[in-house]
Spy/CpxP family protein refolding chaperone (Amphritea atlantica), 160 residues
Amino acid sequence: MRKQLIIGITATIIGAGALSAGLASAKDGWDRCGDRHEGGHHGKYEQMEGKHSARRLDQMADKLSLTAEQKNQMQELFQQQRGQRQDQRGAMRDMHHALRNLDVNASDYDQQVADLVTKAQEQTAQMIQMRAQQKKAMFEILTPEQQQTFMEMRPEKPRS
């Protein structure tokens, strides 16, 4: 039972990482291989993410009637979040590589997998805490009316 749980959690983490990478690479025609010669293969993604957050901020400013000061504060918050998201993606990528590179025939293979599961659980907990703190920081910028409007803007996503 415990092995099945570990395998299930590991598969979920790997699947989520692969899905995130696939969605990110499919967005706006991003070509990972096409820009490796131009200062690294992540440069184009970082530019896209900056454009996305600027577009998201403009939409938010319109729908929430943000003041210029609020918009500036949100822009600073989004900049800070971008670095944190990059760190999270890097940590998840490292775990994915570590799992892929494990030697199945190693005598301590099960322990290595268990250690990776523990690290993945810690990363997931950190990610949840980070997102909660980001939402809290955003709500500190918004007025109560804007907070209510923001919550109404977010549609319920069906889970399968």
